[in-house]
Every structure is written in structure tokens, then in C-alpha cells.
Design brief:
The protein is an alpha+beta fold. Among the domains are: 45 residues, no CATH class; 93 residues. It contains 25 helices and 14 strands. Strands 6-7-8-9-10 form a five-stranded antiparallel beta sheet. A three-stranded antiparallel beta sheet has the order 5-2-11. A two-stranded antiparallel sheet has the order 1-14. α10 runs antiparallel to α11 and α23 packs antiparallel against α25. The N terminus and C terminus are likely disordered.
Length: 694
């Protein structure tokens, strides 16, 4: 590879060179041949796939050893270890604590809103997340590498819907579907701006709606408009130079997609794909042409035929992502979609991706970093192959030995072979002892010991404790694996946030956060940058132990907190977040919100008491804060001086009695809280309220 290829930036051209793209695509694919071979080997180890494997767990044929019908067991030891860790990684992502931290100081006030929004978007709206994260985790552990793509997905479909005059009056730009697949607005039809696509029947229905008649039309309904995630298999679904040190430093990335002819035609209207290209691609991949699997067997060298049937009849589209510069020398990210078949000058689309300037919409998840080269990361089957086969050997041997012990070989006189053998069989002999069973070796305990030793070694290599002595080391290993996993998702969520700012509807922001700051936060392209942090402690996997630990910590903090330094509200938030961060978001409101809510409710209670109503203090209220609000009320405001409030309290005995009852209830809550704490600790912590109001 030349230094020119490595260092000279490529300038984005208005028209792509499809021949050059195809050549480079084939070069990168051939370069990944070794990875595909290794990936297949890992898959074979994990799923116990070997040549001449039978379905009955026995060896058959001339090559069967030590005899025909000998044991040939499936172990799935590595598969079980991977499945356990995949489940843990999914749980770590789901229960992780997501926090958006502002890069600039003026964004601090909005960080909580951004955090709330991203949690809602990732874990409530992205329905594909559970499936894609599971596939991704399997790729990481099995193959050593997982690749995740992040896109903006917008899906539109025709639906039947009633149309009324109020609908048109409220939204003159309401989008309607016409027969040829185009879309037009009601106002455009009524103004005759698009007579070439305006359906006369549709015009008639709109006129009926204007007259107040009930009509039904086909309308354009958005069914999906949000960030979307998709996992790719390296070497098959996505192709990258194997010598890259970091995915974002690759000069090109090729992503393969498969469409039905109908789906491909839909791309003309939904994504602006070239119609001539679409027709040419459909023609090139249908008829007498071989299927993708048949024409390109090197892509799927060892996969089961059943798995590859899904690709038959589909059209393969290659999306090329390339790091380039524009005419001003500014780095950009280009995307060109083409096929390996068809005419050389045709392509689906060729453009600069404005939402990902010089940044690929993919995130790599290597299992390990053992060198500068990204693809040197190994999967567990590669590391555990010897243990998988060793455990199988010991189990096969013990099963064969058990078979020998159950039905040992027969000894008989030469020329006197028994005619039958089995329960109830009658064997004629001349004298006793002519026919007998051979003595078989007894099971040796060393076989079980060897297997146990191999299992323990495999546990240590995958972060599982074999005894209390290595529990700490195992937890460190597992925590490191989880941290690497969540580090990748930090980058993913940053991609999601950029896409949301570029394409998201600010109305969604208002609905989720109920905050008018949304337009400024979402639409400001120059500021409002946030660092995303994801954390999860592997100790939290045992919720019972975690709860006991935190409860003990709370007791210790309360006992030694003499100066009111411990924030027990924050401690409660941490306590719940350790169990379930998403639950904590719903259960525990921000401190500022909680204080404002208590102050607002107390002020409302005072107003009700002043109007003559009897009000009781709500249970579990922040009694100390509410008493402070009452003190502030007695001190007065600019509008109502304190002496006026105090005068009314003194002169209005009924008002005084109602306030006294309300304050007495608050005081009782404070005393109960204090007594409960003293009962547990033997003394009151430093931040407990006083025993009386004074």
C-alpha cells in the first residue's frame, strides 16, 4: 500500500467513480478473508460443529474411533459461558446510570433535561435496542468484535383516515397521498399548484370536506421518526480494512444491505434514490442471474444453507462511507450506494452526510486491546478451544467406559459364537464357562479431576470466581468487561444526540421534558454539547447484597454525621439508582424540583388556612422545610409585610387555631423522625432538626 493512499486526502467529487469503488470494495473484502475464517472457527467451537457430526451423539463410519457408535457428545461449555455474560451485559446496559454532563458552563442548567430526554429516547422509544444489544454482545464475545450502526430512521406509510373541514382549517399543509406514490398537501390541491399529480377524486373529497361532509382519504402517516440502531457482522455485513487501529481512522467502510424489489422501489420516494439505478439493479439481480449466495460463496464460506436462503431473491446494495475533504479542505463524510452488478455509471445516491462530519456512523466494540491493531481482538471460543475439546474428550471417554461396563465384550470358544445375546436370550454351550464377559477397566477418578480443573481454568479466563480466594480478581475482570461495553455505548448515545439535534422534532422534547428550553437546546448547533457517562457496578448484580451494603453505609453515615454534612436526599437517590437507574428517575425527583414542590404546596396550604379551611399536613412531608416556609410567611414579603401576617395571626383566633394545628402536625413529624433515628443510632445525627420550633 502506497504512502499516497495512506496520507493524501481524497477530495469529494460531485460524481462518484463507481468502477474505483467496486475495485476498492473487492480489495477490502479479500483483505478480510482471514477474519472470516477465524470467525467461522470460533462459531464452530461455540456451537459444537465438526466434520461428520451425527445427530444421535455417536460416531459412525470407517473413521469412527475408538469404535463405531462411540460417544460424540456436544458440550456447549463455551456457549454457556457466553450466554451468561451476554445476559449480564444486557442487564448492565439496561440498568446503567446515564448522565449527560455539559462541556460548557452555560449548559449546566439543561444537563438534567438532556439526561432525562436521552434516557427516555434510548430505553423507551428505541424498540430495537434489546435485540440489537444482544446480537452485539454475542458478536463481541464470540468473534472478538462487534459493530453497531447508528442512523436516523423515518418511515412513512399510507393509511385511511377521516378528513374534516376542521382538519384542513387547522392544518392547511396536511399531507395527503395520491395514487402514484407522491404526496401533496390540501392547500396545494385547492390552489391547483400541482395539477399533474392531483387526483380528481381526491380534489372532490377535499371539496366535500369543506362542505362539512364526512369523507375518508389516504394520508401520509409517519410511523417512525427517530434514531435507529443496527448490528453488523464484520466481514459479511460490514467491510473495513483489517489493519486499522481505530474505526474512525479507516479511509473507507462498506456496508451491505439487502432489499426486495418492492423495498428498493420505495427508496426512490423515501430517500431520493435514482430511479434508473433502481430499475437496473432489480433487473441485474433477477431472472437467470445466480443468487447472492451462489455468486459470492466467499462471503459465506461455511454457513449453513438454511441461513443463506434468506438472501435468495434479494438485491444487494453496497453503501460506501469514505473520509474525504471538500474543495475548501474541510473533512467530510461521504456516502455512495451502488451494486456490484449493473452499469458502471449508475448509483443510487451520492452525498455528504452533514450530521456526521468526518465521523463514521458506526461504533466498534472490541472485546480486548492486545495491540494497536483493532482487529487483533479475540473471541472467547478462540481462547477456550482447548478446554472445550478437552472437556469433551473426558466426557466421551467416561461415556464410552460406561457403555463397556454396561455391555462388556463377550469371550467365547473359537467356532462357538453364541447365536444371541440380551435379556432372556438362550445361549447353548457344551460346558459352563465357554461364554463370558471380558473384564472392563474401572472408571478412573483422574478423568473427573482433569475435567474439573479445565472448567476452573475456563472460569478464570472469563471472569468467574471458582472460590472465595479469587472472587476479587474475578470481579475486577468482569467490571473491566462491563466498562469496555458501556464505553462503546457512550459513543453510541453521543451519535444519537447529534442525530436528534439534526432531525428531531422539538415537540417531542416538550412532551418528554415539559420544558420550554427545548427549542434552544435541540436547535442550537453551536453549543449545548454534552459528555455522556454510563456506569454500572457489577456488584449491583446481586441486589440483595447491594441493598444490605448501602443500608449499612447509611447507618454509619447518620451515626457520624455531626455537622449535617451528609446529603441524605442524594444518598436516597444513589440507593435507588444502584438497584434500577430508570426506576430512580421516576421515583426520585431532582432536589430543586422537590424543594419547589414542597414550598408551593405549603404556600397553598397557608392560603387555604387563611381562607377559613382546615388543612392537615400531608404524611411523609418534608416537615422541617414546611416549617421554614411558614417562618418565611410570618416574616412577610414586599407585597404583604410581616407585621400584617403576624397581626392577623394574633387577632384572628380561628386562623391562629388552624395554623397551630397545622404546625403541631409538622412538629410531631419532626419529633417522630428524630426519635426513630435516635432509636437506631442511640444518638441524633448532626443534621437532625431541633426537638421544638422555639
Amino acid at each position: 500500500m502506497s504512502s499516497e493512499y495512506e496520507h493524501k486526502p481524497r477530495v469529494f467529487a460531485e460524481e462518484p467513480d463507481i468502477v474505483e469503488l467496486r475495485d476498492d470494495f473487492n480489495r477490502v473484502r479479500d483483505d478480510l478473508g482471514w477474519w472470516i475464517t477465524r470467525s467461522d472457527d470460533n462459531r464452530n467451537v461455540r456451537f459444537n460443529l465438526w466434520p461428520n457430526k451425527s445427530e444421535d451423539g455417536r460416531k459412525h463410519g470407517e473413521d469412527a474411533w475408538p469404535w463405531d457408535n462411540a460417544s460424540d457428545l456436544e458440550i456447549f461449555h463455551t456457549d454457556g459461558l457466553i450466554n451468561q455474560s451476554v445476559a449480564m451485559m444486557k442487564s448492565a446496559l439496561k440498568k446503567s446510570n446515564l448522565v449527560a454532563s455539559p462541556v460548557e458552563s452555560n449548559d449546566i442548567s439543561s444537563a438534567t433535561l438532556v439526561t432525562q430526554f436521552l434516557r427516555w429516547l434510548m430505553f423507551s422509544q428505541m424498540d430495537e435496542l434489546p435485540k440489537e444489544s444482544e446480537v452485539l454482545a454475542n458478536h463481541i464475545l464470540e468473534k472478538g468484535m462487534g459493530i453497531l450502526g447508528i442512523y436516523w430512521k423515518r418511515e412513512v406509510q399510507k393509511v385511511y383516515r377521516p378528513l374534516t373541514m376542521m382538519d384542513i382549517m387547522r392544518d392547511p399543509d396536511i399531507t395527503l397521498a395520491v395514487e402514484n406514490g407522491d404526496f401533496v398537501t390540501a392547500s396545494e390541491i385547492m390552489q391547483n399548484n400541482k395539477p399533474d399529480i392531483a387526483d380528481p377524486d381526491l380534489i372532490n373529497k377535499i371539496e366535500q370536506a369543506y362542505r362539512g361532509e364526512a369523507v375518508e382519504i389516504t394520508a401520509n402517516e409517519i410511523i417512525c421518526n427517530r434514531p435507529y440502531l443496527q448490528t453488523y457482522e464484520l466481514g459479511r455485513d460490514i467491510l473495513i480494512d483489517s489493519n486499522v487501529m481505530d474505526l474512525q481512522s479507516a479511509r473507507s467502510i462498506y456496508c451491505l444491505h439487502y432489499f426486495t424489489p418492492e423495498e428498493l422501489k420505495g427508496k426512490i420516494h423515501s430517500d431520493g434514490w435514482d430511479e434508473e439505478f433502481v430499475d437496473n439493479a432489480i433487473e441485474a439481480f433477477t431472472g437467470d442471474q445466480p443468487s447472492v449466495r451462489q455468486s459470492q460463496p466467499h462471503i459465506f464460506p461455511t454457513r449453513d444453507v438454511e441461513m443463506m436462503q434468506n438472501y435468495d431473491g434479494l438485491i444487494e446494495i453496497v453503501c460506501a462511507y469514505r473520509r474525504e475533504v471538500d474543495t475548501n479542505g474541510v473533512p467530510v463524510m461521504s456516502m455512495t450506494c451502488f451494486t456490484e452488478r449493473g452499469e458502471d455509471d449508475l448509483y443510487a445516491i451520492h452525498q455528504v452526510i452533514k450530521t456526521h462530519p468526518a465521523h463514521y456512523p458506526f461504533v466498534a466494540f472490541p472485546r480486548e486491546r492486545i495491540s494497536q491493531r483493532l482487529f487483533d481482538s479475540r473471541g472467547w471460543p478462540e481462547l477456550l478451544r482447548g478446554y472445550e475439546y478437552g472437556i469433551k474428550t473426558e466426557r466421551d471417554s467416561r461415556r464410552d467406559q460406561a457403555s463397556l461396563s454396561t455391555v462388556p465384550p463377550l469371550e467365547y470358544m473359537v467356532g462357538r459364537a453364541p447365536s444371541a445375546i440380551g435379556p432372556g436370550a438362550k445361549i447353548p454351550v457344551r460346558r459352563r464357562g465357554e461364554v463370558g464377559y471380558m473384564e472392563t477397566p474401572r472408571p478412573h477418578p483422574a478423568s473427573t479431576e482433569v475435567e474439573t480443573s479445565m472448567i476452573k481454568q475456563s472460569y478464570k479466563m472469563t471472569g468467574r470466581p471458582t472460590d472465595e480466594a479469587d472472587a476479587v480478581g474475578a470481579n475486577v475482570y468482569t467490571q473491566d468487561m462491563v466498562d469496555k461495553w458501556l464505553d462503546g455505548w457512550k459513543e453510541v448515545i453521543s451519535h444519537v444526540w447529534r442525530l436528534q439535534k439534526a432531525y428531531g422534532d422539538d415537540k417531542i422534547w416538550f412532551r418528554v421534558t415539559n420544558n420550554q428550553q427545548g427549542a434552544e437546546i435541540i436547535m442550537d448547533a453551536t453549543g449545548n454539547r454534552y459528555d455522556v457517562d454510563l456506569t454500572w457496578n457489577t456488584i449491583n448484580a446481586d441486589e440483595e447484597k447491594q441493598a444490605m451494603k448501602l443500608e449499612k453505609l447509611g447507618t454509619i453515615l447518620a451515626q457520624f454525621d455531626r455537622n449535617g454534612q451528609v446529603d441524605f436526599g442524594e444518598f436516597a437517590r444513589i440507593f435507588v439508582e444502584s438497584m434500577d437507574p430508570n426506576l430512580a428517575t421516576r421515583l426520585i425527583m431532582p432536589r430543586e424540583t422537590a424543594i419547589a414542590k414542597e414550598e408551593e404546596e405549603t404556600s397553598a396550604d397557608i392560603a387555604k388556612i387563611a381562607s377559613g379551611q382546615v388543612v392537615n399536613a400531608p404524611p411523609n412531608a418534608n416537615a422541617q422545610l414546611r416549617m421554614q416556609v411558614i417562618q418565611n410567611y410570618l416574616q412577610g414579603t414586599e407585597e404583604i409585610p410581616g407585621q400584617d401576617n403576624q397581626k392577623r395571626l394574633q387577632e384572628d383566633e380561628a386562623f391562629q387555631a388552624r395554623m397551630k394545628t397545622y404546625m403541631g402536625q409538622l412538629q410531631q413529624m419532626v419529633t417522630q423522625q428524630q426519635n426513630a433515628m435516635i432509636g437506631r443510632l442511640g444518638t441524633a445525627p448532626g443534621n437532625m432538626p431541633p426537638a421544638s420550633m422555639g
